[in-house]
Amino acid sequence: MSNSAFIKSSIAKKYWMAFTGLFLCLFLVGHLIGNLQLIIKTGEEGRRAFNEYAYFMTHNPAVMVLSYLTYFSILFHAIDGIALFIQNKKARPVSYAYNKPSANSSLPSRYMALLGTIVLVFIATHMSNFWWKMKVSDEVPMHTYYSPSSQDTMYLTQKGEQISTKQIRELGEIEGTQLILKADKFSTSIEEQYSAYLASNPGLSEDQLAEIDEQKKKLKPKKDEILAEGYKDLHTVVMKFFSKKNESDSGLPLGLLGMLLYVVSMAVLGFHLWHGFASAFQSMGINHPKYTPLIKLFGRGYAVVVPSLFAIIPILIYLNS
Ligand code: HEM
After folding, report:
1. Which of 43, 56, 130, 245 is most buried, most CB within 10 Å of its CB?
2. Burial class (CB in 10 A: 0-12, 13-18, 19+), 184
3. Are 38 and 129 contained in the same domain?
4. Same domain, 12 and 115
5. In this predicted model, what pLDDT tens digit does every residue of 149-165 receive, in sequence order?
6. Strands 162-164 and 172-175: what pairing?
7. Binding site membership of 41 for ligand 1 (Cβ less than 6 Å)
């Protein structure tokens, strides 16, 4: 490759890395705000808020588009980064002629590829911990809680209704996250209710009996229907994951190891962002004597605050479990 072609393709790669990197920085802020609900609200209120948020994130069309953009950005950022790293390695004499890395650059800037690879491994592990369970393997249970007033386990539906296990058993069944109204069970329940009504109201006129029959026909379900859809209980999955009680069969403290993995990964992410944030603006050609120092300062603040807040979440869940 000629020098000018090399520089051109290298600049394009850097531009796209910067663009996708900054988009991922925005994603991280949104993801952090959502995840902070895991520690801000406690008890049933916290569980409900987090599960409603997770439902919104997986069902709102605009958020779903953003999700796909996030997956694409992660892959593109990583592949482009690896390609740039290989390209720079091959062109080392040229690269050295322009800048002397050890003399001119900070430690994180020289290890961007390594730090980025560790973050990528973290993201892959992280997505298999939660995202895979939520979206692919369907291992996430339904959101239920015990209600002392009805002395039964209640299912929380996405319309905000609460249906008791007894009601579900009488009228239908649970399939995945759906509460299905079974036509045969519903008919039996209606028949029983009408028989009880007739027994307690003897002496009804012919007209009244005909009217009751008419009502019964209208209520008769023809086929099974979705009565409601319940929330997935992702909150419980996350809480159990970082819990002190999460141990393997051989006694390995999985909760503690999970918490440490997240804390160390957040430190790595912090170092990656320490250089990456401001560098992205430079790669996009934004270089201003007044604003560049401010961008650098903001980037370093972001690199400390965002990963630290992410790290606090598993620490607090672990300590409070
Ligand atoms: C304490 C820290 C974190 C917790 C508790 C956490 C929790 C979660 C959970 C529960 C999900 C599944 C959401 C769903 O499928 O609806 C998720 C998805 C995801 N997380 Fe995290 N997360 C943390 C940090 C991070 C970090 C630091 C990154 C990136 C570096 C990250 C990247 C992602 C991505 C890319 C997804 C998939 C998003 C989507 O499907 O739109 N997470 N996270």
Report:
1. 130
2. exposed
3. yes
4. yes
5. 889 999 888 888 888 99
6. unpaired
7. no
pLDDT value for 104: 55
What's the Cα-to-Cα distance from 151 to each of 10, 43, 82, 157, 158, rounded to whole Å? 66, 19, 58, 18, 22
Q: What is the pLDDT of residues 171-204, one digit of tens each?
A: 888 888 888 888 888 888 888 888 888 888 888 8
Ordered mean pLDDT values, 10 residues apiece, the chain (321 residues): 61 90 97 95 91 90 96 95 85 55 60 94 96 86 89 87 87 84 84 86 86 82 81 95 96 97 98 94 88 95 98 98 95
68/27 same-domain check: yes
Residues 295 and 158 in one domain: no
Question: In terms of residue numbers, what domain contains 210?
Answer: 144-229
The atom of ligand 1 lying closest to the CA of 122 is 30
Number of separate domains in the chain: 2
- Same domain, yes or no: 213 and 313: no
Residues 15 and 110 in one domain: yes
Name the residue at shortest CA distance from atom 4 of ligand 1: 35
Pair (148, 218) in one structural domain: yes
Look at ligand 1, atom 15, and give the residue with the nearest C-alpha: 131
Query: If phi over 0 gives left and psi between -120 and 50 gives alpha, with beta otherwise, what is residue 96?
Result: alpha
CATH number at residue 59: 1.20.1300
Euclidean distance between CA atoms 125 and 132, whole angstroms: 10
